[in-house]
Amino acid sequence: MVVENLNIVKRHTKPRPIRDANRMGGTQMAPGGVIDKPAPMAVSKVMVICPSCNLPTRVGHEFKEVKGKRVKVRVCRRHGCGGELDK
Predict the structure, then answer these.
(1) Smaller CB count within 10 Å for the chain: N or C?
(2) Cα dist. 72→26, 30, 50, 53, 67 in Å?
């Protein structure tokens, strides 16, 4: 999973010719050097934002009665919040 501006790594690249660039005349070169690029990170490192308290939170589960059926619902684990995450 790639999240913008979160897990930026530096990639050292060599200058190399660009494909199909010789149609316009001379060969063009892609620049070399140190390039900043986003890298993937583990999904387990991302936290859910609670819609009621607008803070990152851990997820808890509770059971709720809906139309006579017992449904499992995700809830905010922050102290004093307990808002539903699935709406």
Answers:
(1) C
(2) 64, 53, 17, 21, 13
